[in-house]
Amino acid sequence: MTTYRAAVAGATGYAGGELLRLLLGHPQIEIGAVTAAKSAGSRLGEHHPHLVPLADRRVEPTDAEHLAGHDIVFLALPHGASGEIAEQLGDEVLVVDCAADHRLVDGNKWQQYYGSTYHGSWPYGLPELPGQREKLTGTKRIAVPGCNPTASTLALLPAVAAGLITVDDIVVVLATGPSGAGKKLAVTYLAAEIMGSATPYQVGGIHRHTPEMEQNLIACGAADPKVSFTPMLVPMARGILATCTAKLADPTITADDVYAVYQRAYADEQFVHLLPQGSWPQTQATVGANTAHVQATVDPHTGRLVAIAAIDNLAKGTAGGAIQCTNIALGLDEATGLTTIGVAP
Ligand SMILES: NC(=O)C1=CN([C@@H]2O[C@H](COP(=O)(O)OP(=O)(O)OC[C@H]3O[C@@H](n4cnc5c(N)ncnc54)[C@H](OP(=O)(O)O)[C@@H]3O)[C@@H](O)[C@H]2O)C=CC1
Ligand SMILES: CC(=O)N[C@@H](CCC(=O)OP(=O)(O)O)C(=O)O
């Protein structure tokens, strides 16, 4: 059995920590260098007390020298830092970027929403998109999706692909836990402000995940989709619940029609769990698992589809999705080292 050696850059952060947690259970990937920025020189146990087998690992600086000599490099760095270091890594190493730097195909959209150096696009790490597994197989570069686009795309994919909805008025309202903002940003949200409150942010169509969501819907077959996206912070450590609505293409489409389309679309997707008809996704059931829980129906009063997805932003939304795609790239069983079993309560 081949064993691959992987470095994790940004190992002290939330995404890096979740990558390491999952990699510890991966039978064919061993953990090499763990790197960060200002915390270089510290021990990993100071940052991730839950990762007991790695407690004494020294955190190295993030540079090409420390990332050399690996088969895989996972980048869990802020945007920009990720794009810069990626340019210094050889063509032979598999680079899996959890940041946004290589997600958008359209450089103008990158400028509009990020306004920083555009690093081009890599194969996009959402295997459930039509034709995407072929693009990921054997690749040496993977752009891991944003957690919000993963949840909303998986909620809408079957409806768009089957032409159940019109795509010029898609509304996504999404609740997310603060770990989605990363450790560095999370410290700016005081517990006293988070607990007991729901707080919208990036309101008015300005969130940088909007073009990524639209890009994904184009990949599902939509022509010129328009997404109105409103996220809000809610008091849970992990989790995203994306509620997506859109006008039905034909008002006679029933809830049973919709459910049958979703059943067909996700019949072979082991990491997308379509709930029994009438049950609705809850974030808790996805915690620690590489799953998206999905449900959809119609609202006959307004003639709209209502589709909801729940994910763990750090699992299927980042680290789990990254490992799923890594498995595909390496030709391993897609589920190696991953679970569909969540943690409850
Ligand atoms: N959190 C989430 O749910 C998701 C995160 N992502 C993406 O994953 C990436 C990491 O996010 P997350 O873990 O949440 O962020 P964190 O803030 O929790 O962690 C950031 C990590 O990057 C390191 N770092 C910061 N600046 C630099 C730099 N200039 N050079 C090298 N290393 C640096 C930090 O090290 P140190 O501690 O030493 O400063 C830390 O290890 C981001 O691009 C994020 O957008 C994507 C999807 C979801
Ligand atoms: C709570 C929170 O702030 N969440 C982040 C999601 C981060 C993410 O998906 O990562 P990328 O930054 O790599 O796109 C947000 O909405 O911007």
Automatic annotation (TrEMBL):
The keyword Oxidoreductase applies. It comes from the Bacteria. It catalyses: N-acetyl-L-glutamate 5-semialdehyde + phosphate + NADP(+) = N-acetyl-L-glutamyl 5-phosphate + NADPH + H(+). The active site is at C147. Pfam families: Semialdhyde_dh, Semialdhyde_dhC_1. It is found in: Cytoplasm. The keyword NADP applies. SMART domains: Semialdhyde_dh. GO terms for molecular function: N-acetyl-gamma-glutamyl-phosphate reductase activity; NAD binding; NADP+ binding. Its main location: cytoplasm. GO terms for cellular component: cytoplasm. One of its GO terms (biological process) is L-arginine biosynthetic process. Its EC number is 1.2.1.38. Keywords: Amino-acid biosynthesis, Arginine biosynthesis, Cytoplasm, NADP, Oxidoreductase. InterPro entries: AGPR (IPR050085), AGPR_AS (IPR023013), AGPR_dimerisation_dom (IPR058924), AGPR_type-1 (IPR000706), NAD(P)-bd_dom_sf (IPR036291), Semialdehyde_DH_NAD-bd (IPR000534). Pathway: Amino-acid biosynthesis; L-arginine biosynthesis; N(2)-acetyl-L-ornithine from L-glutamate: step 3/4. Residues 5-137 form the Semialdehyde dehydrogenase NAD-binding domain. Catalyzes the NADPH-dependent reduction of N-acetyl-5-glutamyl phosphate to yield N-acetyl-L-glutamate 5-semialdehyde. Belongs to the NAGSA dehydrogenase family. Type 1 subfamily. This is N-acetyl-gamma-glutamyl-phosphate reductase. It comes from Microlunatus elymi. The lineage of its organism: Bacteria, Bacillati, Actinomycetota, Actinomycetes, Propionibacteriales.
